[in-house]
Structures are given as structure tokens and as C-alpha cells.
Amino acid sequence: MNITDVRVRRVAKEGKMKAVVSITIDEEFVVHDFKVIEGEKGLFIAMPSRKATDGEYRDIAHPINSATREKIQNIILEKYEQVLAEEPVEEAEN
């Protein structure tokens, strides 16, 4: 499996969610709605999920092993950091 494209949409509002991401796998399959979250130990990703009838959120797409989860997370967070670095820095008003 190769992740051939990563699209990052930053979230403008304050809070723990920093971006929503879509990935393309092997230039053939797209998965939307990964979330970049700022946690106590740094950034991590949350898998696409949906709210169930019991109020809990359930992943609707996820890797079946930790190595693949780590690979996806590393690629997404690397692209997120790249997007942050490319944005112009706003100057403070005097």
C-alpha cells in the first residue's frame, strides 16, 4: 500500500482538532476525514468515524495492525507540518 496523495484542510477554530485530512491510496482509493488532534503527548490522528445510536463514535475505516496505523499517522503528520511551514507568518500589529 502506497499513500500517493495527502490533502490537509486546517481547522480555523480554537480547540484540539487542528486539521481534517484526506489520503489517496495507490492513486485509486480515497479515504476522507482523518483528523489531526493535539493531545497531551503531541499530535496524533483520529481515524474517520461516525456517531453511533448510543452516542459513541465508531471508526468507519481503520488499519488492522499498528504498523500500518503508524505509517499512515507519520505520513499525515509530516504533510501537516509541511503545510504549517509553508503558510506565511502573520505579523503582529503595533
From TrEMBL:
GO biological process: division septum assembly; sporulation resulting in formation of a cellular spore
InterPro entries linked: SpoVG, SpoVG_sf
Keywords on record: Cell cycle, Cell division, Septation
Keyword set includes Cell division: yes
Record-linked NCBIfam families: PRK13259.1 (NF009749)
Family: Belongs to the SpoVG family.
Function according to Swiss-Prot or TrEMBL: Could be involved in septation.
HAMAP family hit by this protein: SpoVG
Protein name per its UniProtKB record: Putative septation protein SpoVG
Gene name as annotated: spoVG
